[in-house]
Amino acid sequence: NVNRRYKVRSKASHATNGPESAPGTGNEFIIDPTAPAAAITQPDKAYVIALTTITGNVSDTAPGTVNNAYFRVKRQGLAEYWNWQASTFTALSGQYTDLPASINAGLASYTTDYFRSGQALEPDKSYTVQLYVLDRAGNQDFAAEKDFTIDRSSPAAVVVVPYDANKKGLRNLPSISGTASDNRLNDDVQI
To answer: What SS3 string covers the chain?
Structure first.
């Protein structure tokens, strides 16, 4: 059977030399061949103004338990990852680009002063978040990656028609039109 807790006890006896020994306290162990699960929850949008903390849900099939998790933040277009030791993006560097997650009640999270102050992630740049999880039996899995772009610029909108050139008013309003622009995609335009 899989994903179960077992306890093994032993006792000894000698057929010709006396009574059986009392059973020992035994050893408990878990058979856990099932990989843990992970899903990134922050960032939760493709375009964000800032990202102060990255988060994800982690779990394992009981009685297995999650042992640890780590994130990676990759700058798109380059093979560079956030390096917590250097406080910048560098080539993949094992323990320094594996961002250790704090885990509380199945929520894994990572932050740094550089994320909270907006110094780590550059405006108009795109990034990919990765989440890896490991259980106590050594099974590993990873979440689906999440891509996001830091977008701190505001869109602009201008009403072109109607235009009252002489500021005396209009007799009729045959149409209303305008323009809207953004350095990314406009999400919603209303007149």
So the answer is: CCCEEEEECCCCCCCCCCCCCCCCCCEEEEECCCCCEEEEEECCCCEECCCCEEEEEEECCCCCCEEEEEEEEEECCCCEEEECCCCEEECCCHHHCCEECEEECCEEEEECHHHHCCCCCCCCCEEEEEEEEEECCCCEEECCCEEEEECCCCCEEEEEECCCCCCCCCCCCCCCEEEEECCCCCCCCCC
Q: For each of the chain's 191 residues, which pLDDT tens digit applies? A: 678 888 898 888 777 777 777 777 889 888 889 999 999 999 999 999 999 999 999 999 889 899 999 999 999 988 899 999 999 999 999 899 999 999 999 999 999 999 999 999 999 899 999 999 999 999 999 999 999 999 887 788 888 888 777 888 877 888 888 888 777 666 677 77
Q: pTM for this structure?
A: 0.78
